[in-house]
Amino acid sequence: MTIRAALHRFIVGAVLIASIPPAQAWGREGHRIVGQIAADHLNPAATVAVAVILAGEPEATLAGVSSWADDIRSRETGPLHYVNFPRGTCAYVPARDCKNGRCVIGGIEQSIATLRYTGATAAAKNEALKNLVHFAGDIHQPLHAGLGEDRGGNLVQLQWGGEGTNLHSVWDSQMIRSLDPDWTRHVARLSPVAATLPLTTLDSADWALESCTIAFSDGFYPGSAKLDEAAYLRRWQPTIDQRLSLAGMRLAALLNALFP
Q: What is the dotted CATH code of the domain comprising 22-258?
């Protein structure tokens, strides 16, 4: 290969990688599902507190603001949406995995601290709540606690519905829409059952490790770009349902503890 050809291949590859959109855990439907499940299980005091904090928003509900953090996402805030672990190792080392709090675990912790701080301004609490709703969804999407080398599955190319896509998009939106394109019907199906799930922990680092374990489990990464959609959906629907439900219930538990 000539130097010119090698340089051309390098430039094309760099452009292709740069053109891949940032990983966004769950699509709008998934984040709305999480937000609404949480809203369904708030105590009266937390319901009032949320309404006060979100007053003035175009859609002043947890579901309505659930994608705000993606809408304003930038190079600076991007790292707050995920945490990366070494291949095959689901163990959280803050100094390695979340330097200076720059990961989704740190984003959740900072949002909680702001909401708890009595001296925080109304604007700061508003932003913190919108971030918390979103990050609680992010951290329960397995590919936001997996490998950095494939950009959370964005570099894993697949076919879904006869079109080219990637593994991250399949988990974000494609499987949820394949099950039912109406997010409100997911809520109607999941929310009543979600209350029966054992929450076990409200530590966001534990939530990330759960997601990591799923992402590194056998069969999560398809062996071929020609995915058997029906079989894959059948295998992973229970996991999707559980992660969305847990995200909503754990978010509700956090807010209920903040606003008892």
A: 1.10.575.10
